[in-house]
Design brief:
Layout lengths: L2 H15 L7 E7 L5 E6 L8 E2 L4 H14 L15 H4 L4 E2 L2 E2 L6 H5 L16 H7 L6 H9 L17 H15 L3 H10 L20 E3 L2 E3 L2 H11 L2 E2 L1 H13 L7 H5 L3 E2 L8 E2 L4 E4 L12 E6 L4 E6 L4 E6 L8 H13 L1
Antiparallel strand pairs: 1-2, 1-14, 3-8, 4-5, 6-7, 9-10, 10-11, 11-12, 12-13, 13-14
Helix pairs in contact: 1-12, 2-7, 2-8, 2-9, 7-9
C-alpha cells in the first residue's frame, strides 16, 4: 500500500485529534499478513499504552461463547433458564402482559435480539449519568433488578429487530462462568489471553489493578469500581498493539473455527440512537454504502467500538484492521465516525 494511503490515514487521524473533544489518541492499521502497517499517537498515547476496551470486551465474551459452542458445552439455541434461579429471571422480560423471561436463549443475547432495555442509557437515573458524577460498584443481581424496573422494547426474536443492551452480555458472562467453572477473568485468560500470548490484556478484579482513566469532555474520570462491575459487557483493559492481535485472531480463525462466523453473520439494525450500526452474533456491522457516507463507501466494517472511544474493526474489502482509542466518553459515535472515515480513505 502506497505512501499516499498512509498520508490519507494520517490526515483523517490528525483531523479527528485536532478536535477540542480529543485529548489523546492512538491508531494502528494493519493488513492480515502485516505487509501494511501504520500507527500514529496523539497526546502521549502509544501502542503499548493501556486503554479501556469498554464494549469491545463484548468480542471477548463472544469468543468465549463460540469456543464453548465449538467444544459442545453450549448451544446458541439453549434457553438461559438452565443457568439461573427462577427468582433471578422472573419478571425480567414482560412485554404487553406476557412474560418471555424463560423463553430467552443464548442467541437472543448474543444477537441483541432479546428486546431487553439498556440501563446504561435508559431511565431517569441511567448508569451513564451516574458514572459521570461518581464511582460505584454494581453487582449482577443489582443490574438485573434495575432492568426489571424498565420496559422491554419488543418480544424476543421480533423479525428484523435488535436493541443494544449491556445486560445481554452481562448475562452471557454469568453463563460462561457457570459452564467453564472459571471466573470470567480466568475464562478470558484460558480461552483468549494465553493462547494469543497477550501480556498487557486483562479483566480487572480489584481496584489495585491498573485501570486507565477516561475523559468526559476535558474532565479526567477514574472509575475503577464501575469498570470492575462492567465485566462481560465492558470491563477489559488492553493496548492498541494487543487489541490488533486479538481482532485479527477473532476474524481470522485462531480462537475458533472461522466457519462459525457464517452462522453469526446475520445482521439487524440497532435502535436509532446507534446510528448506522447493525448487530450480528456478538459484533457490530457498519455498512459503508448508506446515507451516512452519502452512498460513496464500499463494503462494510465488522468488529466493535466502545463508549469511551475505543475501536477494533476489520474492513474485509481492503483486508485492513483499524484499532485504537480516542478516549472520550462524551460522544460514543466518535470512534465509529473515525473508523468509517479511515475505511473511506482506504478506497
Amino acid at each position: 500500500m502506497s505512501n499516499i494511503k498512509m498520508q490519507k490515514f494520517e490526515k483523517v487521524f490528525n483531523k479527528f485529534t485536532s478536535s477540542k473533544k480529543i485529548n489523546e489518541g492512538i491508531l494502528l492499521i494493519e493488513s492480515t499478513n502485516e505487509d501494511f502497517s501504520f500507527s500514529k499517537g496523539y497526546g502521549g498515547k502509544e501502542l503499548n499504552s493501556p486503554l479501556l476496551m469498554a464494549s469491545i470486551t463484548k468480542l471477548f465474551t463472544t469468543a468465549c461463547i463460540l469456543i464453548l459452542v465449538e467444544q459442545g458445552k453450549l448451544s446458541l439455541d439453549e434457553k438461559i433458564s438452565k443457568y439461573f434461579e427462577v427468582e433471578t429471571l422472573n419478571g425480567l422480560h414482560v412485554y404487553k402482559g406476557k412474560d418471555y423471561s424463560f423463553e430467552l436463549t443464548i442467541s437472543d443475547l448474543l444477537f441483541q435480539t432479546s428486546g431487553l432495555p439498556d440501563v446504561y442509557e435508559e431511565g431517569k437515573d441511567s448508569v451513564k449519568e451516574r458514572v459521570i458524577k461518581e464511582d460505584f460498584y454494581i453487582t449482577f443481581s443489582e443490574m438485573i433488578a434495575w432492568v426489571k424496573k424498565l420496559s422491554p422494547h419488543f418480544a424476543p426474536r421480533g423479525k428484523g429487530k435488535a436493541y443494544y443492551a449491556d445486560i445481554n452480555f452481562d448475562i452471557l458472562g454469568e453463563i460462561i462462568e457457570a459452564e467453564s467453572q472459571l471466573t470470567l477473568s480466568n475464562a478470558y485468560k484460558k480461552y483468549i489471553i494465553e493462547p494469543l500470548g497477550l501480556v498487557n490484556t486483562y479483566l480487572p478484579d480489584s481496584e489495585n489493578d491498573d485501570i486507565p482513566q477516561v475523559y468526559y469532555m476535558n474532565q479526567l474520570l477514574h472509575r475503577p469500581k464501575f469498570v470492575i462491575s462492567s465485566r462481560a459487557s465492558g470491563g477489559c483493559v488492553t493496548t492498541a498493539y494487543e487489541l490488533m492481535i486479538f481482532v485479527k485472531a477473532f476474524f481470522g480463525g485462531r480462537l475458533f473455527n472461522k466457519t462459525i462466523l457464517n452462522r453469526i453473520s446475520i445482521y439487524n439494525k440497532l435502535q436509532a440512537s446507534m446510528g448506522p450500526i447493525y448487530y450480528g452474533g456478538g459484533y457490530m456491522q457498519i455498512p459503508l454504502n448508506g446515507w451516512v457516507t452519502l452512498f460513496m463507501g464500499k463494503g462494510e466494517l465488522v468488529g466493535h467500538s466502545g463508549s469511551t472511544g475505543s475501536f477494533a474493526f476489520y474492513y474485509p474489502i481492503k483486508d485492513l484492521f483499524f484499532v485504537g482509542d480516542i478516549n472520550q466518553m462524551a460522544d460514543a459515535a466518535l470512534p465509529i465516525r473515525l473508523s468509517m472515515q479511515l475505511a473511506m480513505a482506504a478506497d
